[in-house]
């Protein structure tokens, strides 16, 4: 039976790549979650699909040009007035949420338009720190660098 992955969380119901969307995906019993990782100006790993925040937030500019504190002040529920305000999550926060579950995780590293220094190593370290390495044996748990 195929695994059902929540792409960017339950992004049709709630703002993509936010904790609310990931929590909804868990509620909907998704087999896995796909998310996207970028790096901030202060080296934090955040979950955001686009290299800019323009489409998904009330801010503008490249993710890498903002500190995590600056990004955290933005509303990442832009585009839908019915959604509650949402903040950009750290990869660590999502790993904390998913750690006690059996949900698989596909981490897409957004490293093609902007070449983030050591993005792969930082993401792998975050995964190890949250005790996820045993899940890497599953074909559905991956870190993809594009």
Describe the structure.
The structure is a single chain. The chain has 146 residues and is an alpha/beta fold. The protein has one domain (5-145): Alpha-Beta Barrel (TIM Barrel), CATH 3.20.20.190. The protein contains 4 helices and 5 strands. Strands 1, 2, 3, 4 and 5 form a 5-stranded mixed sheet that branches. Strand 4, helix 4 (119-129) and strand 5 form a beta-alpha-beta unit. It is globular, with a radius of gyration of 14 Å. The protein starts with a strand and ends with a strand.
What number is the mean pLDDT?
89
CATH class: Alpha Beta
CATH homologous superfamily name? Phosphatidylinositol (PI) phosphodiesterase
Q: Kindly, what is the distance between the CA atoms of the first and last residues, rounded to a whole number of angstroms?
A: 28 Å
List the helices and strands and how they pair.
Elements: E1 5-7, H1 19-27, E2 32-39, E3 45-47, H2 68-72, H3 91-98, E4 104-109, H4 119-129, E5 142-145
Parallel strand pairs: 1-2, 2-4, 4-5
Antiparallel strand pairs: 2-3
Quickly list its features.
4 helices; alpha/beta; TIM Barrel; 146 residues; 16% strand; single chain; disordered C terminus
Summarize the structure.
Helices cover 23% and strands 16% of the residues.
């Amino acid at each position: 039976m195929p695994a059902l992955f929540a792409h960017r969380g339950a992004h049709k119901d709630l703002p993509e790549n936010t904790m609310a969307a990931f929590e909804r995906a868990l509620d909907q019993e998704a087999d896995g979650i796909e998310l996207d990782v970028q790096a901030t100006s202060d080296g934090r790993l955040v979950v955001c699909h686009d290299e800019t925040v323009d489409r998904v937030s009330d801010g503008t500019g490249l993710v890498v040009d903002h500190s995590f504190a600056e990004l955290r002040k933005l509303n990442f529920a832009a585009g839908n007035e019915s959604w509650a305000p949402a903040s950009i999550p750290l990869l660590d926060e999502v790993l904390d949420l998913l750690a006690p579950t059996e949900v698989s995780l596909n981490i897409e590293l957004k490293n093609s338009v902007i070449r983030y220094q050591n993005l792969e190593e930082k993401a792998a370290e975050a995964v190890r720190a949250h005790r996820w390495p045993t899940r890497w044996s599953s074909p559905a748990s991956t870190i993809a660098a594009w």
